[in-house]
Amino acid sequence: METVRSPYHLPPRARFPMPWPGIGQLVAAVLVLGMATLIAGSAGGQIGPAVIPLILLTSVLVNAAAFGFWTGVLSALGAFFLFSFFFIEPRHSFFTSRPQDLLMLAVMLVCAGLSGLMAGRMREQVEAAEGRADVLEVLSAATFDLSSATDEATVLARAAAHVARLTLGPAVILRAVPERTGRTRSGPEGTAVVVAVPAAFRPGAMELQAADQALTRGTTEFASSDDRNGSGLTFLPFGPGPGRGAALTIGHRPLAAARRDTPDREQAVRDILHQAGTALERLALARKAEAERIAGERQMLRSTLLASLSHDLRTPIATILGSLSTLREFRRNLSADAQLDLLAAAEEEAERLKTYVERLLQITRLMNGGTVTLHRVAPADCARAAVARARRAFPGRTLSADIADLPLVEADASLIEQAVFGLTENALRYTPGAVSIAAGLRPGAVEITVSDEGPGLSAEIRAWLATPDLLRPGEGSGLGLPIAKGIARTLGGRIEAAAGRAAISLVLPLPAGTDPSAPKTKTAS
């Protein structure tokens, strides 16, 4: 995109003319001079003639400080003529013959002129400082708002709001439409309104045409001096786009060239657009980084699954192959009981192999972001189904349940059952002693907790549960806990492990507006 000069590069005198006073200001200045003349005339006999010029000079200072440079200059001339007409002999005429009177008039003119000039300049400097302070305040707020934005829509809305505040008028941001297949609802081909401040503002046909040219050429399109024959907004392109074009353009009302803070405000608009472009690039890089993280996580999944296949599938496959080959070669020499034992071993290992393959498929689906249809389900019923399934799978183990009736949650019943069963199976398989399952409420959520008599999870595993990673680095086997974590994350919940005790909980959020009170009836078994 080519570099575009500011639309306000004018010679300094044309760019910063001293604002001419209005009729009201001139009338007020005349009244101030008249009041000073009356005071000087009525009190001249008591205070002495030397004080009269000071009274008139005070009125000049008041007018210059209140109404600006030109008012001060005109007040100085007016004070000079008033002093000459009313207070220099012969009075009521502009004629004087005494040299000392001429000198007094000259001194009066010089003093009045300098007083008006300095007071007017001081007023202009105060106004310029106030304008710069306003601009710096907007820039500071814009910097904070744009740096803290987390999505593109927020960046554009905040940029438009701050530009509208700077330019004292409406602002609108339009986007380039890649495929010009027809007219959009916003206007001509190639443009679409993204955000406008105020929200009800919509650019006209001439503005949309100017915006389309700014997007296509990548150059600034200036506002027309006549809104009826051209665009009433100045459009500045920003954001990366193909070729010389741009992705976005912002339109704003041009500031009056007579404003003293116009250059500061114009520069601030360009600074805000630069910050908005930087924020959009930051968000794009964040999306790219997240995509790279997901790709890396999937690559780690593949590595983990390969390691898991080589570790956990080798034993059941070897057992199945060994049992079947033994039966095929030595069946005639084996007793009926031995043959049944071999068949039972092969069947047990085949069942184990089936379970493990199902887990591999489940974890792969979770990692690939498989969609889940959510319904209102009873988590207590899902937990009881998982308990019954665990008792069938481990008939010789002690398993107790104390599950309260819980409010409904937005989830998938089979996934809740799978997660609770996975946590229960881990406890039964890897720890001795009894295992208990309890369900209850916490603020804004339900929790199902599996406790055992083991040492509990290590600090490393508890830290991993708080991360978004589905698999632990270097983990070669044991997919029950990762599957439970993936299910919890898919359902909008989480897995928590207590420090210092062997307990792990599945926490699921309650839907908005749910009554947190749950029935007190419990089903114990």
Write up what this structure looks like.
There is one protein chain. The protein has helices spanning 12-15, 23-47, 52-67, 69-87, 99-148, 152-167, 205-217, 262-312, 314-330, 336-367, 379-393, 413-430, 459-465, 480-490; strands at 171-176, 191-197, 234-238, 248-252, 375-377, 399-404, 409-411, 435-442, 445-451, 494-497, 503-509, 522-524. With 525 residues, it is α+β, with helices and mostly antiparallel strands. It folds into four domains: 12-131, no CATH class; 158-284, GAF domain (Beta-Lactamase); 313-366, no CATH class; 371-524, 2-Layer Sandwich (Heat Shock Protein 90). It has a six-stranded mixed sheet with strand order 10-11-9-8-6-12, with helices on one face. Strands 2-1-4-3 form a four-stranded antiparallel sheet. Helix 5 packs antiparallel against helix 6, helix 8 packs antiparallel against helix 10 and helix 11 (379-393) crosses helix 12 (413-430).
